[in-house]
Specification:
alpha/beta, two-stranded parallel ribbon, elongated, 9% strand, five-stranded parallel beta sheet
Length: 349
């Protein structure tokens, strides 16, 4: 089975006009799927030929017969045409349309570029092997800063790196939400320049009031600040209690890695390295730069014992489950209870 490719790998190939006959786009980042579809269309078709040679359809609207007609239609007054079928996971596993597609994949038309997008986690193995399989995963922290910078330039904006990082910290890693906030900034930025003050004013989240700041307060065991921050943090753009818990859970695991390294006789440098290597291997989403997180979690390790961290991770797990319950209405109360539970661990110790 051919290895799945990344956005960057396919993007570079397309820049060299290395265009495959069939692409299969999977993964959780729908915004990146849309961006890659746009780039494929831009590389294959000029503006004038798109009315006749670009078809974008939802899989739910297609039958076996209509798909056959769509992919076998020759281009008009052009060398190639592009067919985009979105959310092919909507087809039933035994639907006739899959038979039509599988036969086509055995010998795809050289004059058609077929792009298939997939929305669910469970992918189709036959497409992974017969098409260029591209997995669109969440961007790592540094890639995310570059994405914001590129998206801002498209909107006619110039972001300082400080402003870009604060926007990400305030909104989290949701590309759709980040795009909307950048569009808002485009209408408010004087001279097209965006600094951290403008981001803070427009997004409504000042420095020190982001999810990452709240996580830092919890990991440093500052109970009063952790609880007092909750209304402000939850009121920020893109912030949800569940996202906050995902970030906190990742941080607790990172602190535990550091604590284990310290208990084994290592120093602060070894603890930071252990966290950084774990982040590089796991590539979790929703974090600041790995270097910054490694330093913060290594510092926080001095506040915890390994036993306390075990119980804290359990408390975070229980909080996450409670937040996902349909009966929960007081998110601040649930999060506050978790923070107080962690505070009692210290008192008990």
């Amino acid at each position: 089975m051919a290895a799945a490719k990344s956005f960057d790998t396919v993007y570079r190939a397309l820049q060299k006009d290395d265009v495959a006959p069939v692409y299969y786009l999977t993964g959780p980042e729908d915004v990146l799927k849309d961006e890659l579809v746009t780039f494929i269309v831009d590389r294959v078709l000029d503006e004038g030929g798109r009315d006749f040679n670009l078809d974008m359809r939802s899989a739910s609207d297609l039958t076996g017969e209509s798909l056959h007609a769509l992919i076998e239609t020759p281009p008009m007054l052009a060398d190639r045409r592009v067919v985009v079928v979105k959310n092919v996971d909507q087809w039933r596993p035994n639907a006739k349309v899959w038979q039509v597609l599988d036969r086509y994949l055995e010998q795809p038309s050289p004059s058609t570029v077929l792009v298939l997008t997939h929305g669910s986690e469970r992918t189709r193995k036959s497409l992974e092997t017969s098409a260029v399989h591209v997995v669109l995963s969440p961007l790592n922290p540094e890639r995310l800063v570059r994405w914001v910078d590129r998206r801002a330039k498209q909107a006619g904006l110039e972001f300082s790196e400080e402003a870009a990082r604060h926007l990400i910290a305030a909104v989290n890693t949701d590309l759709a939400q980040l795009g909307m906030e950048i569009d808002k900034l485009a209408s408010a930025a004087p001279n097209g320049t965006v600094d951290i003050a403008l981001v803070s004013d427009l997004v409504g989240v000042r420095r020190g009031e982001t999810t990452h700041d709240w996580v830092d307060a919890v990991l440093s065991r500052d109970t009063t600040r952790s609880i007092s921050m909750l209304p402000t943090v939850l009121g920020g753009a893109g912030a949800t209690a569940v996202r906050m818990m995902i970030t906190l859970g990742t941080g607790l695991i990172g602190v535990r890695i550091a604590r284990r390294r310290l208990d084994a006789g290592g120093g602060d440098r070894q603890a930071r390295d252990a966290i950084f290597n774990a982040l590089r291997a796991a590539r979790p989403a929703g974090l600041r730069s790995w270097k910054e997180e490694s330093a913060a979690w290594a510092r926080a390790a001095s506040n915890w014992t390994r036993r306390e961290l075990t119980h804290a991770i359990r408390a975070a797990y229980d909080c996450d489950r409670a937040l996902k319950s349909t009966t929960v209405s007081d998110e601040i109360g649930v999060l506050s209870h978790m923070v107080l539970t962690m505070a009692r661990l210290k008192v008990a110790a």
